[in-house]
């Protein structure tokens, strides 16, 4: 898989690529912790060497991910014809990089160049009406024909309809296409009725996954998938959604990072339209045609016209340089209620680096939980 205009990038050795994947797959190393470890140690190899000592100071023994398991995962992706995309690769999407806890490593299968196209998410109900699926197909086909990437989550209903509309013959003449974000590993198509779509997407579109190869899709993975869908796109269109659906989570995440949130209105007699109608009441832009969407996205400058917002809690974490001070004594300040890291810095009087070091030690020892918005609590 190559991009037609390969841009220069800092060389990443195969050993460091392996170490990065092993670091991310190690116990209790999430995206935020991964970035902190890289910032403080300079390389994944050095961070891996430091993990047992950090965890020991937090009060627990620690063993990084088994190298044999990492090699097997890499071999499985290579056998499928896929590749990894690292957070500092020049082709890593700028919009996704702006998300809190952006995935440090993505698995890709298909046309990687689609990540360079402007993206619009099209999401909606799994038990969608025939009218909603027709709208999803038509919107996706029209957007792709104008050079956009139609992004969705490979689920049944609206998602699948959007992908199929984007794959209609002749729609991708202007360089557009469709990106499917998987809730499990790339080798685990879900749901079963979309296995054929999975194969077509791998050949004619792009499949993206954050989870390791072999990971079965589970409900707890879908919010992470939804944040990638929202993060890849300048705007999200909700076609049909009941209150509390995953599509509304995607819209909320898009609103949190200042992207356009759009919704197609529906009949108040249909419960599947209540989510869209509520979004519009809360400030999402009402759209009725693909041209409405294109107009919003083409004029998007980073300040959306939609006023729909779900305010994020606190600030995104700031990655700090190494410190020679040692860890701050912050454990007495922590409890089961989440608190912002910035507040820990203020209350402890310690430097940000010393606070982050203490948080790393507690997290690697399994005693800390990270929450959205740069907040933490004891676990």
Automatic annotation (TrEMBL):
Domain DprA winged helix, first and last residues per copy: 321-374
Pfam families in the cross-refs: DNA_processg_A, DprA_N, WHD_DprA
Record domain Smf/DprA SLOG: where: 84-297
NCBIfam families linked: dprA (TIGR00732)
Family indicated by similarity: Belongs to the DprA/Smf family.
Official protein name in the record: DNA-processing protein DprA
Lineage start: Bacteria, Pseudomonadati, Pseudomonadota, Alphaproteobacteria, Sphingomonadales
């Amino acid at each position: 898989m190559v991009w037609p205009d390969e841009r220069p990038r800092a060389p990443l050795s195969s050993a460091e690529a392996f170490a990065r994947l092993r670091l991310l797959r190690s116990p209790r190393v999430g995206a935020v912790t991964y970035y902190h470890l890289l910032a403080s140690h300079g390389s994944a190899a050095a961070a891996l060497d430091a993990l047992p000592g950090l965890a020991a100071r937090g009060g627990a023994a620690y063993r990084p991910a088994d190298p044999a398991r990492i090699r097997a995962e890499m071999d499985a992706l290579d056998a499928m014809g896929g590749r990894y995309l690292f957070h500092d690769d020049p082709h890593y999407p700028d919009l996704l990089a702006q998300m809190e806890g952006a995935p440090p490593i993505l698995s890709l299968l298909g046309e990687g160049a689609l990540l360079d196209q402007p993206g619009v998410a099209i999401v909606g109900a799994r038990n969608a009406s025939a009218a909603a699926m027709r709208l999803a197909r038509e919107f996706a086909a029209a957007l792709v024909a104008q050079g956009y990437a139609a992004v969705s989550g490979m689920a049944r209903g609206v998602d699948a309809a959007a992908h199929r509309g984007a794959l209609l013959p002749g729609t991708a003449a202007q360089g557009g296409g469709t990106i499917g974000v998987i809730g499990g590993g790339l080798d685990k198509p879900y749901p079963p009725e979309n296995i054929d779509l999975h194969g077509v997407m791998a050949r004619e579109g792009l499949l993206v996954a954050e989870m390791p190869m072999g990971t079965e899709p589970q409900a707890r993975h879908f919010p992470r998938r939804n944040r990638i869908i929202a993060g890849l796109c300048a705007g999200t269109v909700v076609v049909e959604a009941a209150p509390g659906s995953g599509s509304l989570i995607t819209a909320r995440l898009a609103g949190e990072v200042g992207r356009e949130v759009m919704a197609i209105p529906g009949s108040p007699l249909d419960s599947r339209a209540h989510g869209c109608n509520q979004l519009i009441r809360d400030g999402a832009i009402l759209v009725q045609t693909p041209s409405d969407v294109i107009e919003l996205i083409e004029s998007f400058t980073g300040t959306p016209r939609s006023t729909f917002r779900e305010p994020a809690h606190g600030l995104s974490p700031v990655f700090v340089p190494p410190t020679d001070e040692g860890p701050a004594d912050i454990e007495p300040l922590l409890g089961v209620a989440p608190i912002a890291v910035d507040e820990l810095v203020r209350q402890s009087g310690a430097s940000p680096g010393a606070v982050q070091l203490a948080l790393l030690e507690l997290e690697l020892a399994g005693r800390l939980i990270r929450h959205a918005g740069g907040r933490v609590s004891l676990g």
